[in-house]
Amino acid sequence: MALLVKEKIVKLALIGATGRTGTHVLAAALGRGHDVTALVRDPDKLDSRTRAAVRVVVGDATEPEALTDLLTGVDAVVSALGPTSKEGDLHTRTADALIAIMARTGPRRFVGVSGAGIDVPGDRKSAANKVISALIQLLGGAVVKDKPAEYAAWAASDLDWTLVRPPRLVDGPASTRPLEHDAHRSTRSTKITRADLGGFLIDVVERDLHPRQAPFVATPRA
């Protein structure tokens, strides 16, 4: 696979741009000079300056027509979709729709957000994190079950995907120190700021980090 370094990334498709994490992804992408096409349900949630800086596609993340428009001519897809109790299988349905289009017409690179509570082959979680993951999977309901199904869909594809597994999301500024991240070893820190997560998603695309893996990532402890 060709390395997608920052200088070669020209066009990014962003899903979930108006969410609590998506706003940070969008800011990071624009701040680094990328050309962004954003899929949104309500364009009025973008301020006028942002709207002028991006190409906006109005639609749903599971709609083939909207996704085809979104993905036309882009180099990579970044999704910051968050969980929603109203659509317990949203991530799996989105993955299925994206995979079908990406396999047919491209692009091949996808970076999305999963959760630290899911298990993937090769994991080396700490004892405490194993217990936490088991509780999340037991008590989390449909939204939690959606995450392993989403992972299975991407893993079964031949695309170049990365599903980032953050721990507890919090508000706060981006860290000035390198983030903790590893493909299989759980992080020592148990939280990450949304600003750090947003920046990391763009790092993954720019530096081609963790292809076909589901890395853990966290804001380093103070």
UniProtKB/TrEMBL annotation:
One Pfam family from the record: NAD_binding_10
InterPro entries listed in its UniProt record: NAD(P)-bd_dom (IPR016040), NAD(P)-bd_dom_sf (IPR036291), Polyketide_Oxido-like (IPR051606)
Signal peptide, first to last residue: none
Upper taxonomic lineage: Bacteria, Bacillati, Actinomycetota, Actinomycetes, Micrococcales
GO molecular function, one term: oxidoreductase activity, acting on the CH-NH group of donors, NAD or NADP as acceptor
Protein name per Swiss-Prot or TrEMBL: NAD-dependent epimerase/dehydratase family protein
Domain NAD(P)-binding positions: 16-207
Source organism, top-level taxon: Bacteria
